[in-house]
Design goal:
Length: about 425
């Protein structure tokens, strides 16, 4: 039956893993499962959502949320070294780097109007504990605050005996162990919350401490998988748990690609599939693509209602095109899509007798006709596009440019260069 389904769909299948949270099989890293004789794992196949389904309850209607608003919470107690037993093995997080990852990843999404976000951490908030997080989640527009649609927690988790705890902070910046049930009760009271991400990306451990820190995080990964199951059981539609330490570069790719795709499509399952595929394409041997675990309580991954004309907003401002030639762009530290368009139009102008007027908008097109023509959707990564361009044209540009072009193509935009 599997072979028939695979052949009929050309490998583009939806994978639902129904593994009970109390089962002995639940802790296994099913995200790394591969077909016998195949190198490419099931979870990274293109257009193939791969997730754990728990319960399969009736789907909650998609929420009207434009932009999607995320709350990032970073818990970094100042006195971890004073703890006893396994607590003393936990290493401080590199908060500045965590913040840099968030800012770099979210900036282009905020600029496009797809996302908005807030950050809570003890260095910036006078009061920072579970109660403060709960109060922020419950605030609404009526109180002068945007509703929170996604909670992204960056913190440690730990087992003590048979119980597991989330390591947060109290008002004195000391560690506070929050039981799984207390955490679930504290963060699930918001009606607009559709997604929770549980992660610990970076620690300050080096040398001999690094191995101990990695061992402590493996425990955190087990805690988060178990906690994710409880959150889904408390009617959170979708939870993502990091089951291993994720490198800084992969953390940025995950944050930007996942939230960008989620905000454009509204689908958490397809956003995770696209993100895994990008991580795998960029570094197939790193296994970072298998770190995020998606657990859903409903079969429908549509969390947010997004109108097509509002999600497809990738459009460089033609009036502000960068006129530097390609040679200069190649040596720049960062180049955006408007720079690439301006440079290519300048190149075309040098090759043609007639001048180019980029400020003049394109002629009216038959959008419906174009949509019918492009029946097969595009799905590519920036790295694959960069490789293709380099091999076929010799043009070398920063990877950020190709990532933006790939994002536009994946969103269904038509990219046309005219001269």
């Amino acid at each position: 039956g599997y072979i028939i389904a695979r052949d009929r769909t050309k490998g583009k299948m939806r994978w639902q893993l129904r593994v009970d949270a109390d089962s002995e099989a639940y802790p296994y890293k099913w995200e790394f499962l591969a077909e016998e004789g195949e190198e490419k794992p099931l979870a990274v196949r293109e257009f193939s959502p791969y997730y754990r389904l728990q319960g399969g309850r009736e789907a909650i209607p998609p929420l009207e949320a434009q932009p999607v608003n995320a709350l990032f919470v970073i818990a970094n107690p100042a006195n971890l070294s004073e703890g006893r037993g396994p607590i003393s093995k936990l290493q401080p997080l590199l908060v500045d780097k965590e913040l840099d990852v968030i800012r770099r990843a979210m900036a282009p999404l905020v600029e496009k109007g797809w996302m908005s976000y807030e950050v809570m951490h003890s260095a910036a908030d006078e009061r920072f504990d579970l109660d403060a997080i709960k109060e922020r989640l419950q605030k609404s527009r009526a109180e002068g605050a945007r509703n929170i649609h996604a909670l992204h927690l960056i913190a440690h988790g730990i087992y003590l005996g048979d119980e597991f705890f989330v390591v947060l902070e109290n008002r004195a910046r000391e560690f506070e162990l929050i039981s799984a049930q207390d955490f679930v009760n504290g963060v699930t009271s918001s009606e607009d919350l559709r997604l929770i991400v549980l992660a610990t990306c970076l620690s300050a451990a080096t040398g001999p401490e690094a191995a101990a820190a990695e061992g402590a995080f493996l425990e955190t990964g087990q805690v988060y998988r178990s906690l994710a199951s409880r959150l889904v059981g408390a009617n959170v539609p979708a939870v993502i748990a990091m089951q291993k330490n994720i490198p800084i570069d992969a953390a940025q790719v995950f944050t930007q690609r996942f939230y960008g795709d989620l905000a454009r499509s509204g689908r958490v399952d397809m956003a995770m599939a696209a993100t895994r595929h990008d991580l795998y394409t960029a570094q197939p041997d790193s296994w970072t693509w298998g770190i995020p675990v998606l657990i859903m309580g409903q079969q429908d991954g549509k969390l947010f209602a997004v109108k097509r004309q509002e999600k497809d907003t990738f459009r460089p401002p033609l009036a502000q095109l960068d006129r530097r030639p390609l040679a200069q762009l190649g040596s720049a530290s960062t180049v955006d899509a408007t720079s690439l368009v301006g440079a290519l139009q300048g190149l075309l102008a040098n090759r043609l007798d007639a001048p180019v007027s980029p400020e003049a908008g394109p002629p009216t097109q038959d959008q419906a006709g174009l949509d019918r023509t492009l029946a097969r959707p595009v799905r590519m990564s920036g790295s694959a596009l960069q490789k293709h361009v380099k091999e076929n044209s010799g043009i070398e540009l920063p990877s950020e440019i190709f990532a933006q072009i790939a994002s536009a193509l994946n969103a269904g935009k038509h990219i046309i260069l005219t001269g």
